[in-house]
Automatic annotation (TrEMBL):
<protein>
    <recommendedName>
        <fullName>GPI alpha-1,4-mannosyltransferase I, catalytic subunit</fullName>
        <ecNumber>2.4.1.-</ecNumber>
    </recommendedName>
</protein>
<keyword id="KW-0256">Endoplasmic reticulum</keyword>
<dbReference type="GO" id="GO:0051751">
    <property type="term" value="F:alpha-1,4-mannosyltransferase activity"/>
</dbReference>
<dbReference type="GO" id="GO:1990529">
    <property type="term" value="C:glycosylphosphatidylinositol-mannosyltransferase I complex"/>
</dbReference>
<comment type="similarity">
    <text>Belongs to the PIGM family.</text>
</comment>
<comment type="function">
    <text>Catalytic subunit of the glycosylphosphatidylinositol-mannosyltransferase I complex which catalyzes the transfer of the first mannose, via an alpha-1,4 bond from a dolichol-phosphate-mannose (Dol-P-Man) to the glucosaminyl acyl phosphatidylinositol (GlcN-(acyl)PI) intermediate to generate alpha-D-Man-(1-&gt;4)-alpha-D-GlcN-(1-&gt;6)-(1-radyl,2-acyl-sn-glycero-3-phospho)-2-acyl-inositol and participates in the sixth step of the glycosylphosphatidylinositol-anchor biosynthesis.</text>
</comment>
<dbReference type="InterPro" id="IPR007704">
    <property type="entry name" value="PIG-M"/>
</dbReference>
<dbReference type="GO" id="GO:0006506">
    <property type="term" value="P:GPI anchor biosynthetic process"/>
</dbReference>
<keyword id="KW-1133">Transmembrane helix</keyword>
<feature type="transmembrane region" description="Helical">
    <location>
        <begin position="307"/>
        <end position="325"/>
    </location>
</feature>
<feature type="transmembrane region" description="Helical">
    <location>
        <begin position="260"/>
        <end position="286"/>
    </location>
</feature>
<dbReference type="GO" id="GO:0005789">
    <property type="term" value="C:endoplasmic reticulum membrane"/>
</dbReference>
<keyword id="KW-0328">Glycosyltransferase</keyword>
<dbReference type="GO" id="GO:0004376">
    <property type="term" value="F:GPI mannosyltransferase activity"/>
</dbReference>
<keyword id="KW-0337">GPI-anchor biosynthesis</keyword>
<feature type="transmembrane region" description="Helical">
    <location>
        <begin position="211"/>
        <end position="240"/>
    </location>
</feature>
<dbReference type="Pfam" id="PF05007">
    <property type="entry name" value="Mannosyl_trans"/>
</dbReference>
Length: 466
């Protein structure tokens, strides 16, 4: 009990500090990590710097030499990453890490803005509804008291806690300072959510709302260009702009075949942005860009050890060739995740208030069921989780949250042991790794089920309910 009390006192003290303080401390932490990584790489056989960072830096060298970044073997990213890391070559080799760390901080600022604005907006709508119901004035002025920043349930405090969940997460801080660019792509995923939620608050200003939706589509297309996985969010974004709800297959087909003007704007913005970047880089780098940047990720089959449930199956069948079990493997791998993703999209993607959780759960499912899973992929859903933690706090205790987080970390640790023995001690632990991958898969599904079970609407979520 004393430890729990100490934890709550420490948390209360931290959350009374200005948000600017947390930003400054987080920047310093990331700078320290980058400096440490430089020293570590000089004295250790196991590098701190991500291999992807080295590959992209080599791609930047190819650009400076007037060549294609795809001339660098295993370069399979957007050419924009190579352009971003040109300062690595001409200025300082760690500059890219500072750039990615900046986007790490920007992600936290977006989380703070979305959570704070959403809670205030929901409060406004709830009070408007209650005033209208009891025959009072329906206009709700900005003088509503949301509570001080020190009040436990104030939007300011909850938003600060949500952002700190990202800022002080050691996994996210380490991955960005190792030179991984997933915080960059995650920023644009969350920015799309920000614009769509903001557009819903502009219903009285139709012109502004339409522009926000169009820009959201453009940002979404750019996010797909950077990473293909945001493509799976498209249906959820589309449904949340619908005028009706999906209660049957007939409703679903009607919404798909007869879109609203706002839905058309979203689709147009997405296609315009995606095709623009695709055409530009196709013009510059030809078919090599299409294959390495897009097609490779659809046909990728990685037999190196990773967290995926399907790792051992792919490793054992690697000698059979494409004609052996290729099609069967694809069906086994893709069918379960797409069925679950469709279910989550229809269940949570229709409401603006549940849209962040929809995108989080879809991403979590994609990573859990994917044919290749590495620790960098965890950033994809960890960037979205802070947008939802307030919805879990009402039904899931701190003790339960700590238990599930500990279970998740333990399952990773149990996998890392045989992986270390395989990679550094040359032990034959493939079947051991396969067994631990199954355990990790089960734990992830258990956690997802508990999150869905404990996800709750706040009392402010009234749109489409009245």
């Amino acid at each position: 009990m004393a430890k729990v009390s100490l934890y709550y006192r420490l948390k209360e003290r931290l959350l009374t500090l200005p948000f600017r303080f947390h930003i400054i401390v987080s920047i310093l932490i990331r700078v320290i990590f980058i400096i440490y990584g430089t020293i570590h790489d000089q004295h250790s056989d196991v590098p701190f710097t991500d291999i992807d960072y080295i590959v992209v830096t080599d791609g930047a060298r190819q650009l400076l030499a007037g060549n294609s970044p795809f001339n660098r073997h295993t370069y399979r990213y957007s050419p924009l990453y190579a352009f971003m890391q040109i300062p690595n070559v001409v200025l300082y080799r760690e500059m890219g890490k500072f750039i990615y760390s900046c986007f790490d901080i920007l992600v936290a600022l977006l989380i703070y803005s979305i959570v704070r604005n959403e809670l205030q907006s929901q409060c406004n709508k709830a009070v408007q509804y209650l005033l209208a119901k009891y025959g009072k004035a329906t206009k709700f002025s900005a003088s509503v008291n949301y509570g001080d920043s020190d009040t436990r349930k104030s939007p300011e405090r909850i938003a600060k806690a949500s952002a700190c969940f990202w800022l002080y997460n050691p996994l996210t801080a380490v991955i960005s300072t190792r030179g991984n660019g997933d915080s960059f792509s995650s920023f644009f995923v969350i920015f799309t959510l920000y614009l769509l939620i903001k557009s819903d608050d502009c219903r009285e200003n139709l012109k502004k709302r339409n522009w926000l939706i169009f820009i959201a589509g453009c940002i979404h297309g750019f996010a797909i260009h950077l990473r293909l996985y945001p493509l799976l969010f498209s249906l959820a974004y589309y449904l949340t702009l619908s005028r009706g709800l999906v209660r049957s297959i007939k409703d679903f087909l009607r919404i798909l075949l007869f879109p609203s003007f706002q839905q058309l704007l979203l689709v147009f913005g997405t296609l315009l942005s995606l095709t623009t970047f695709t055409c530009i880089f196709y013009k510059l780098y030809g078919w090599q860009y299409i294959y390495e940047g897009y097609l490779y990720h659809f046909i990728r089959k990685d037999i190196r050890h990773n967290f995926s449930l399907y790792f051992l199956m792919q490793y054992l069948s690697s000698g059979l060739g494409v004609g052996g079990q290729g099609m069967l493997e694809k069906i086994v791998i893709l069918a379960p995740q797409f069925i679950l993703i469709l279910y989550l999209t229809i269940g949570f993607g229709q409401y603006r208030q549940t849209l962040p959780f929809c995108i989080f759960s879809v991403t979590y499912t994609l990573v859990t069921f994917n044919s290749v899973v590495t620790s960098q992929y965890f950033i994809w859903y960890m960037a979205l989780l802070p947008l939802c933690i307030n919805n879990f706090s009402q039904t899931m205790s701190m003790e339960k949250s700590a238990f599930y987080f500990g279970l998740w970390m333990l399952s990773q640790g149990l996998w890392l042991l045989p992986a270390y023995l395989l990679e550094f001690q040359m032990w034959n632990t493939f079947y051991w790794i396969g067994a631990q991958s199954v355990l990790f898969f089960v734990v992830n599904n258990l956690i997802l089920a508990r999150l869905i079970e404990n996800y709750s609407f706040t009392s402010f979520k009234i749109r489409k309910l009245f």
